[in-house]
Amino acid sequence: MKAVVTSSAKFLPESVLSNLDLEKILDTSDEWIQTRTGIRERRILKDPEKATAYLCTEVARQILDKRGISAGEIDLIIVATMSPDMLFPSTACLVQDNIKAVNAWAFDLSGACSGFLYALNTGAQFIATGTHKKVLVIGGEKMSALMDYSDRTTCVLFGDGAAGVLLEPGEDDSHGMLDARLYSDGSGRDNLCMPGGGSLRPTNHETVDRKLHYLQQDGRQVFKSAVVGMAEVADEIMQRNNLTAEDIDYLIPHQANNRIIQATAERMGLNLEKVAVNIDRYGNTSAATIPICIAELDEQGKLQSGSNLILVSFGAGYTWGGVYLKWL
Ligand code: UT7
Question: Residue 268 C-alpha to ligand 1 middle, in angstroms?
Fold first, then answer.
């Protein structure tokens, strides 16, 4: 039994942090950020009392409303995030309680920017086995909580947001999650990480003084691997499923850098009209980028029954992968 997406939703905090705002606090420029990344602005969740669980809860509520079902019908909630409210309990458990999904079990999945694709494929397995009927898969991030706003090499890149989908069994095997190829390579660990706050370097005065509680990235190294990883997995998904560029309705890529997105589209032979892009408005929202794109296309009525979608991502770990999703 294939898992199909029966509903989608997104939630972005209202507060906008533009490149022009960043120019005022950093040695950077709108021109540099737009040329190197494609980002114009990003959203920031300013309320210190709210975090990723809040963003994901808003998404879950919308999905339930749109689908016209009650929270009690949900069997499983998976939240993909690298910015959980706390190391434990999981953000998924907080969402489960917030919406009172009393019959659901819930867990977080740590796959960084590929988290949503990992979670989508994981959720789809529970549908495929027939043991679960309704699985909420959400990618949510409060990336602003991981940023050092004096480090221009990272803080200009990331933003906050969440989005997700509801997975249910399809009527036949022709639609839904048709293929997935997912990869990991932990040798990339030092190029994109948050070194402090885990069991290796628990938070203490020293870790804070050394700013180890902030995201650190060697942008150039990650860029090189991301360009290759995203393009190769997109190519692999196309070949495995005998898809040509004409067959594909939308490429939905992770939104880390417009240049990486364009290189992936080029490798697939796709023109840019078929590529979902929101990095200009939201920056890199990590695990949330791909479901935000899906929710936007869905809201705009651009997804028809049978639309062929290729989802590809690359992120910390390294983690990367591709999914072939045929819209219900
Ligand atoms: O989502 C998870 C996966 N992440 C990615 O896929 C991100 C991949 N990496 C990238 O997207 C790019 O590497 C960045 C956007 C992070 C950086 O772009 P780049 O073209 O690779 O720039 P760079 O790191 O090579 O830096 C070029 C110059 C440097 O100055 P020097 O050493 O040439 O004098 C940087 O100090 O740009 C400087 N720079 C900045 N200048 C103005 C770095 N950040 C900024 C900034 N404003 N915000």
Answer: 25
User: Which residues form the pocket of ligand 1, taking CB atoms under 6 Å from any ligand atom?
Assistant: 28, 32-33, 36-37, 113, 152-153, 156-157, 219-220, 222-223, 226, 256-257, 260, 284, 314-315
CATH number of residue 223's parent domain: 3.40.47.10
Instruction: Based on the fold, state whether residues 189 and 214 are members of the same structural domain.
Output: yes
Tens-place pLDDT, residues 121-158: 999 999 999 999 999 999 999 999 999 999 999 999 99
Residue nearest to atom 23 of ligand 1 (CA): 220
- Output the pTM of the full model: 0.98
CA of 219 to the centre of ligand 1 (A): 6
Judgement on whether residues 161 and 195 belong to the same structural domain of the protein = no
Which residues partner with 161 through β-bridges?
141
pLDDT in tens, 64-95: 999 999 999 999 999 999 999 999 999 999 99
